[in-house]
Amino acid sequence: MCVVLLVPIVPFLFLGGHVDDWLRGLAENPPEPVATFALIVGLLATDILLPIPSSVISTLSGWQLGWFWGTLATWLGMNSGAILGFALSRRYGRAFALYFSRGRDLEQIRSVSDRYGPLVLVLTRAMPVFAEASVLMAGIHQLAWQRFLPAIVVSNLGIAIAYAAFGDYAERNQWLPLALAISIAVPVVVAGLARRWLPQGPGAGPDANSPGDSSG
After folding, report:
1. Distances in whole angstroms, Cα of residue 36 to Cα of each of 51, 90, 110, 115, 179
2. Measuring CA to CA, how many Å separate 93 from each of 29, 62, 75, 136, 203?
3. What is the pLDDT of residues 152-191, one digit of tens each?
4. What does pTM read for this prediction?
């Protein structure tokens, strides 16, 4: 967790001037909005399968596109990624899910799912790792699409608005580096607390971890 929290800080300690120049150049000569929109959607759509820092991408969407279009790009990308992961785990089951999430995380989510049902999808939407695990576990349990989609679509909209508005506010006040640090630190801390306090499933020991874990 400490290493992750240092990711946005270390570059500014050693390369602060170069990073500032890069950010200033990007602000003065931004890429085409359509290309930026498509890139954000594409990156977030693969978040379920790859270790994409979704909170950072979502914050940058508001910085580059403004809160409205940033919200739309983030929302579409997050929904696409969740639907993709749900469909694949629903089709291929636990063996598929273990390639992209650790067994311990799946078991912790299973324990909460048994108690709260589809509500766990909403409760974990803003948590790295557990957001992906909850989607995969819902697919493993063959949750009906009509129960999965409303929970995902509504909760993703709230998160998309929050991150995009935060990025837009950071752009207008010229403190993007701090905003990026916050967008990394807060989800990591929340996930760390969740990992500590969520109930441990019966199969959540070290043997349940998958060597193919790549989800972030």
Report:
1. 20, 31, 36, 40, 19
2. 46, 35, 26, 8, 16
3. 999 999 999 999 999 999 888 878 777 877 887 777 777 6
4. 0.72
Compute the distance between CA of residue 75 and CA of residue 162 in angstroms, rounded to an integer. Answer: 11
Kindly list the domain boundaries of the chain, sorted by start residue.
2-208
For residue range 139-156, list pLDDT tens digits in order: 888 888 998 999 999 999
Locate 175 and state its tokens: 């403190």
